[in-house]
Design brief:
Outer membrane efflux proteins (OEP); four-stranded antiparallel sheet; 462 residues
């Protein structure tokens, strides 16, 4: 009996330990963010932001890789040869007194040999190397500007995702309140109908609205969960974590309204999109310059030092082995003289590509100006729509309240009440969306203007 009790206790212990370990492994982190805190967090932890910083690190390594090719290079080699079948040469037989016309086989080289060599080489002049140095700097600037572009897009994405969560949460709250009010009205109307003081249609009209609101609430709750997952993805946070937002939609929208922003002038040189387009143009220019530099001579110098040993046996690790040193120094000049106009064709093609890039840069400037004008218009429209929808909501609330009183007193029909409720729900939805649009459209305008000024101090003025 004691054995059975002992077994039961042990099973309960292991079960508790397993459950406790599972609880520990599934524990998720908790976060709470204001919008600004969310932006700062995402700039460090967003997946695209992390890889964008790695792109800069790669560009720095590539710059040094290019620079190192023009610095002194030292290489070493070790060779060992064992002639399993030694080559044989023949000598005239007369040398050793043989009959004329005969030959004597002779082996000249020893069976085994080893050599050690170290070589120092240095580029003295290479036009392609000078262009490559310039190109590596341009590529680094491109990577930095691409990182700045990523920061802007991450910031805009976080703002939109943050606003999207607030919009969904506010929508759930409003629908829940409307549903509670409607449920109360439906209950009271049923009682009145049961007492024969109203028609059944009045109950049915409210039931229709109640069912529609119930479906909307279920959909809004699912959308809130999806919106939160999108926000966590934009932040670089595990989806299993618990996240709370410290701001609310209305206060954030009011804080976001900044009419002065619409009057801010567009500075193309501060535009990340312009800088990226300029970098691409510079790359095409350098490609053209590279093709032209290939017509120049390439001059390199070198000096090496080596030593060799020979023997018919493997004696190369013995102190008594005789090693024979050797050293060579020299200069090499390689100058392409005639390529059947192939180099000229490559140069002309690079020049055409450069011209195309210049045209694309002009087009991009016009697109940025158009993006700016559209963003200003959308932002100003969002502000105006916000104020209009705020007034409309106040009117819709008063109309719905009056119709509810009239319906209770038997003056208005259920159809009139339902129409007023539908108008109120529509006004509420439009008001929520207008607040979100103010937040989102301001983020778009700030992205065009680069208002956070994410330009790196390493960037030279284009």
């Amino acid at each position: 009996m004691s054995v059975i009790k002992y077994s039961i206790v042990m099973l309960m212990f292991f079960a508790f330990a397993k459950a406790n370990s599972q609880q520990l492994t599934t524990t998720s982190e908790n976060y709470s963010f204001t919008l600004e805190e969310a932006i700062d967090f995402a700039l460090l932890n967003n997946y695209q932001a992390i890889n964008s910083r790695r792109d800069i690190a790669k560009a720095l390594k590539q710059k040094w890789e290019t620079t190192a090719t023009g610095l002194p290079q030292i290489s070493g080699s070790a060779d060992y040869n064992n002639q399993l079948k030694q080559p044989v040469s023949v000598l005239p037989g007369e040398i050793i007194g043989e009959a004329p016309g005969t030959f004597v086989p002779v082996v000249f080289s020893p069976k085994q040999n080893a050599s050690l060599t170290a070589t120092l080489s240095q580029i003295i002049f290479d036009g392609s190397y000078l262009v490559a140095l310039e190109a590596s700097k341009t590529f680094l600037k491109f990577s930095e500007n691409a990182n700045n572009k990523t920061k802007l897009e991450v910031r805009k994405g976080v703002i939109n995702a943050y606003g999207g969560v607030l919009l969904s949460q506010e929508n759930v709250d409003i629908i829940t309140k409307n549903l509670e009010t409607l449920e109360k009205n439906l209950y009271e109307t049923r009682k009145i109908f049961e007492n024969g003081l109203t028609e059944e249609e009045d109950v049915e009209q409210l039931e229709i609205t109640f069912l529609q609101l119930t479906n909307q609430l279920n959909s809004a709750q699912r959308q809130t969960e999806i919106a939160m997952n999108m926000f966590q993805l934009a932040m670089g946070i595990d989806l299993a974590s618990n996240v709370k937002l410290a701001d609310n939609l209305e206060s954030l929208a009011v804080k976001t309204i900044d009419p002065a922003l619409s009057n801010q002038n567009l500075n193309l040189e501060q535009s990340v999109d312009y800088r990226i387009a300029f970098n691409l143009t510079e790359q095409r220019r350098l490609e053209y310059k590279l093709e032209r530099s290939k017509a120049l001579p390439r001059i390199t110098g070198f000096i090496n030092y080596g030593t060799q040993a020979f023997d018919n046996e493997f004696v190369f690790f013995k102190n008594s082995t005789q090693w024979y040193p050797q050293s060579v120094a020299g200069v090499s000049i390689n100058w392409p003289i005639f390529t059947s106009f192939g180099r000229k064709a490559r140069t002309d093609r690079a020049k055409i590509a450069w011209d195309q890039a210049e045209t694309d840069l002009d087009r991009r400037q016009q697109e940025i100006r158009l993006d700016y004008e559209s963003a200003v218009n959308d932002y100003q429209l969002a502000i105006d729509t916000y104020y209009t929808n705020k007034k409309n909501l106040e009117l819709a609330e008063r109309i719905e309240n009056k119709n509810e009183i009239k319906f209770t007193e038997g003056i208005a029909s259920s159809f009139d009440l339902r129409q007023a409720q539908t108008q109120l729900y529509q006004a509420q939805s439009e008001y929520l969306n207008s607040m979100y649009q103010v937040i989102s459209n301001k983020a778009t305008l700030e992205t065009v203007l680069n208002t956070p000024n994410y330009l790196s101090t390493r960037n030279d003025r284009p």
